[in-house]
Specification:
- The protein is 50% helix and 6% strand.
- The chain is built from 21 helices and 10 strands.
- Helix 7 runs antiparallel to helix 9.
- The strands form 5 sheets. The chain has a two-stranded antiparallel sheet with strand order 1-5.
- By secondary structure, it is mainly alpha-helical.
- The longest helix has 26 residues.
Amino acid sequence: MVYKKLDMKRYIFLLILPVLAGFTSCSSFDKFFDIRPKSELIFEDFWKDENDVKSAVGACYRGMIEQAFIERLIVWGEVRSDNVIKGRSVNMSISNILDTKLLPANEYTTWGSFYTVINNCNNVIKYAPLAKDNDPNFTEGQLQAYIAEAKGIRAFCYFTLVRTFRDIPLIETPYDDDKQPLVVAQSSPDEVLDFLIQDLEGCENQAPSFWENDVYSSKGRITQNAIRALLADMYLWRNDYANCIKYCDEVLNDNNVVLKLEDSKVYNADVFIIGNSTESIFELQFYNSNNFLNYAVNGMYGTTGGNGKQEQLSAFDLVSPGDLFPRYVTFNGNKIPVDLRGKDAFFPDFVNQLFPIKKYISLRSDNPNGSTAASDYANGYTSSNWIVYRLPDVYLMKAEALVELGGDNNLTAAFDLVSRTWNRANPNTTTPLNYNSYNSQALMRDLVFDERQREFLFEGKRYFDLLRRINRENNIDVIVAKYLMRKYAGLDQATVRSNLSDVNALYMPINDGELKVNYLLKQNPFYKISSEVQQN
């Protein structure tokens, strides 16, 4: 059944290539999202008709499926979290991050792959109106839909950069001259988010509810619900809980699009391997071709990555502490979580002290006795989509906002939302979640926090969740001690605490190369001092 669906995905993907990339022929996958260099897009001879705009928008998506882009989503959102440790063949840059030796020279402090996508979006926003002027069949509504698409992509990139670096350059117009360095000062997170929220709220209704009745386009391109989910996420980051709930409800009450959780039996296959599931809102599309394999995910989690990178990360022991997966069974010395998300996301091989990550790259066969063995996993899936938002995001963002608002009714509503994802992952349990075990704001806060970790393991969200909670509660020492320190047990504890005790240290440094070409940039103060100490 899985292979049949994968074949259908491949067939549909062929059909939608002209829609995504603006080509009249899809005979060669080498032409997917193939456009001229960005410096040439400004000339009027390019922006002649709607097809040129489609092609330029396609370049925005094409930039997001590049290996460097996806790798940074994983490194920035997972590597510094309590989800992962070093894998079997970790490179020096990731090893240094996992040893809390992050310095501005680290390759993962570069942000060029994100600003390339941002510049492509800025090109669409500024120059797409030229195509409408030249193409009498190109309507204003179509134009605004493409612009909303570009603004949604741009906002996701900027929001990721803000959560990773904090102070970043905000660039609203395309960079037209590749021969001159781009010199722009940083903006504060509030300035960036003010701009993004106003921008998205202004174009939310201009984006389509879905694209041409095609599920693969509607899941793989920016839609109204993708923008609403992004707005909810931004408002949650800013502790604006009323607006977070508002946009979550807009997604949940949208009668134009049917969103529902996949059944427990097909959850892992349909959501993470086949992709574009019934719960998907927006995910980056990959295809089983050498040009469009998800090399980043397979390099970080699996054994088939590109550029010689493979199995760089391993799951941390998420079972033994007993707080994330407290319910487990033991077979042959291995503790196997009862929760399906624990089984599907990683293989807890305690005997050999290995915890290989399985999400996105493996399908697990059910073992009748409830155990899990390495042979139960069919590995080698290389074209899994990268999920940005799905229905559980909306459930759990709203649940978190309700908890922070407080009050019995809000706590009850939050518990109901958590129960939806928990029940799906625990279909055969005889001991469901009990509200009475979480009937205070503090207990419910931890329940939502832990449920987000279980549901979104290795999806690039955990570190941002930790950082959001630290910023909200102003309790860096408590969160670091409770969640992060245990994964650094093999390192000098005093050094680790020193490197994680300053809020500035929780954000990435500005890369050395960026500081050299843009003299207006100011280094994160923690890394300025750390670099000087390292050099001495």
